[in-house]
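Risk register update: the risk that structure generation would not scale has been downgraded. Supporting records follow, first protein first.
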Amino acid sequence: MSSEELRKKFLKFFEERGHKIISSASLIPENDPTTLFTSSGMQPLVPYLMGEPHPLGKRLVDIQKSFRAEDIEEVGDNRHTTFFEMMGNWSLGDYFKKEQLNWLFEFLIEELKLNPQKLYVSVFRGNKEIGIERDLESVEIWKDIFKKNGIEAKDVDFAEKKGIDNGRIFYYDESKNWWSRSGAPNEMPIGEIGGPDSEVFYDFGEELKRHENSKYKNQPCHINCGCGRFVEIGNSVFIEFINTNKGFKPLPQKNVDFGGGLERLVAILQGEKNIFKTDLFIDILKKIEMLSGLKYENNMLPFEVIADHLRAATFIMGDDKGVAPSNVSQGYVVRRLIRRAIRYGQQIEIKQDLWIQEIAQVIIDKYKSVYPELERNAKFIMDNLANEGIKFEKTLEKGLKELEKLFDNYKGNFKNFVLDEKSLFNLYQTYGFPFELSIEEINRKRVQAGGTPMSKETEGNLLKLFREEIKKHQELSRTAAAGKFRGGLLDTSFKTRSLHTACHLLGAALRQVLGEGVRQKGSNITAERLRFDFSYPEKLTNEQIKKVEEIVNEIIKNNLPVSFKEIPLKEAKEEGAIGVFESKYGEKVKVYMIGKEDEWVSKEICGGPHAKSTGELGHFKIIKEESSSAGVRRIKAILE
């Protein structure tokens, strides 16, 4: 079954069960300060999971573009990618566990023809400290489902200690079987929603020994051990709790949020244990073979990193809210993806100029029928890839010079020369100089001095320490981000609603002052301030900033009403509503209007929520105007 057939089959299956098909949201999240990218299907639907009515009803199905930067180091293990497609079906306070688990199994067995003997499941073990019980309801549903398929399903606890133990249903704690955007229950901020989940795993039947001396060799094998025998193919999350000052409380509605990894299911359906050997990647890998003159089978790690990273970068830049490579925020991640791909290309000795563009074109051609925005934004993708390639060459020059300074400062015996992990991390962090290249240069210095390259053991220990430095830095960054972004999307307080409405007014004022060509490129709202990114090539003058403030405050002073209506996308466009049109024709959207009939100050496609009138907002003040990325400006503002 091809990836295209799987997409169609999944959407049709749930459409026949009363679900409305919705389009993938942007990879760049809107008004969500908790994350840089859309990393799950849940993120764009949070307001509806909390009770806001969705224009298309209580049953939805979609395939969501997703990206997880934390998986960058995992690429090359047969099943991890940074960019992926998440198949999702949703119940917004409608059906719950029984319908979901039965439908999911029916889809896997009847539609995809998977062997039920190959399927295993996990459920939430429970946590008395947070007052949430073991998910015995799901256990009983699963036992009944397996029994109907001729399987007596034994439930097993602590498989991580004793192995499979002839089990079929396994209990795990909140690190494995609890889902929220921020992770386990103790990591969830006040106002965050989440709940226990039940995952389905496919059994490949043996450990995948992609690497020598597998660390799982002498450990008990279980469905979550990570050895490669079992791979998670779907996760039904039961979003029914919200974290409050008094602990976890039930949400007004019980929701189902299913996420299934399209890449992993495609691999199984095409008889592969490795997602890179599927129709999703095969053309990309053939292109790398042609460019390098080498075979994928003999160079799996660099081939997979190049294929994954350039696919992810192409999708992020090719989004209608596309992000260019830069040194900050989302742009830094795009830069890191491209530069890692280039570095691995150097390892397999790809010499051609602009080769990353050639691979990007293969990716665009593969996906443009499903995601037409890639072709629409092809020039933006290609221009940025070319610029980044040139910049990285200069970066490598600077890094090499800095490395030479470190060599000059070293007075010992170069035969045994080794830099410490902090120096290597500083080269990486400050100059973007890859660890692997530092090691190559150190070994070159050792050989020149009559020595030998570092042993694999020494190199491995140094890499471990280097990664620990990266982890420390990431933890510090996360801590800083947590302090900076109190509140967030789930904070629907009066202040946040008011700032959301102020965002719409700011956009309208910018178009009035700078011209109708101004387009929103992203926003981020907390209870303290709003951040608004928009397309404009120049720094705003003090006079322009003052004029924008005056227009917004005049609208606030006039106390205009804020209203909304739910209409088809085509009608919204015809009426002149603005927004990033991620939806498809035929879908209903919410359009928020500020002002009076035929005298609208603002008319935008938006999920809400908002203030009831502009008079509630207070005084609008711009506190900062700066560059966000090439051709994009950023304004930060507050309400006093």
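Supporting record for the second protein:
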Amino acid sequence: MTSDSASSTSPSSLWRRPFERWLDGVEPGWAIPVLLVVLVAVWTLFQVLAYQGADLHPDVLEAWTIGREFAWGNAKHPPLMGWMARAWSDVFPLTDWSFYLLAMVNAAAALLAVDLISRRFMRGDGRAIVLLLLLLLPAYQFHASRFNANSVLLATWPLATYFFLRSFETQAISWAAAAGAAAALAMLGKYYSVFLIAGFAIAAVAHPRRRAYFSSRAPWVSALAGLAVLAPHLWWLATNGTAPFQYALAVHAGLSRQEAVADAVRFVLGNAAYLVLPVFVWLLMIRADIRRFAANLGDLDSSLLLLVWIFVATVAVPPVVTIAISSNLPPLWNLQALFLAIVVMVAAAKFAVPRFDSVNLSVGVIAILLVSVAAAPFYALYRNTHPFDSSRNFISAAADEMTRRWHEATGEPFAAVSGNDDLAFGAAFYSPDHPFYKRPFRFQTDWGVPRPSTLDRGWAAMCFTKDIDCMNWMQRVAQVPQSVVRSEFTVHASLWGRYGAATKISALIVPPRAATPAPPVPSDSDDAIEDFSASRRMR
């Protein structure tokens, strides 16, 4: 595709000129950074406004919790998201806005990596069109805003793909080593990245230039570099067991064959559904040249053909595996692969797209961002009375109240917390004492009783009273130590002085052995359940 400012034949008007100047700045090098800065700023603002009456998503709190103590592995997830969250919080404060910013910086890095690939095939407007079409997907705003093991793949997958593409094209040792290291980094983000590596292998085998690639040192250098990067994590798995795989199978496997087949079909259809809007917009932009475009698709560049095979593999291989092991497969897990389809689609066009349509696309994307920000306060008002399923409306308020009760009961800093994961992660993050999360990740599918040594050092737990499993577990734990303080309290969501939805929380405090427990806080049995309405801190 060769669309650029020189190919524009549409008339200009005053309001269109800033967008045309922006498109003119793609090749000089300033336009793409400006777009990414705008995305980060606007969508961070959206999150600040939309979640004023709520806290960070539990997935984000979990990522920070995992990263508190450096390790080469974790019993639930690979370690990359924890490393990134820890590195970020070493620089930025522990506040909601800083983690909103982290999420969007990660999304911007992902789009920048996609642009590295795009510039291999197109110039000028074409590079901008790829990114603008990607912003019509939910991947780089809504999905990206929840920083977790899935969203870290948004950046690692295109980066690994770029290095693999260069390695395949040149067979250079440096590109091959970078491809292997980047692929390993993606694996450290989430084991689902094995499907990206499978895509690389399938694409290399299916490509007409496979003999030149496999007769070079490139694939073997990539394999060695990848193993070198993965070696510490592989050692961790060898010495700590395969808990991450056991957790994944416990949570996602166990479906019947029919359920697995249905889930595989939904995965393929879901990927197609995500692409409907950007594909429709693209076809609208090239409406006068659709026949030429169809002909261009039949005569793809050699490197574009490689991207096609990678994309096909990332969509086709996961359903085969999920049927084989009878597990579920949400389409959301493959959002980070959809950039491949957009890049191929736009790069395949060997004709100029009218500047008029490129400007319209730019205006449309900016309009969507601005409308989202304008709607954010209304969304916050709605969620104040219609709480999130993840209960993020109540997490920091519960952490504040639990910290107060701990101090009253023990007179010491709040040191350890467990119970419901959402509440425990929240207490670790939002409490000024930052207690450590003490429910081992390797036992997250069980409800085990803490060791006596853990209880002796002081420990607390919280459960939503509607969570029967957690409440039954708390009852068992309460029978173990000699001294416990049990209580219940109600937490209200609040926004701009308006109380919203409420939930009831059961709390259990085991004071440290050296501490003298304060008189018990009235509990449910005393018919004196406290009603705690938290006024939210500015975060």
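The CA atoms of residues 52 and 364 lie 27 Å apart. On this basis the risk owner (M.S.) recommends closing the item.
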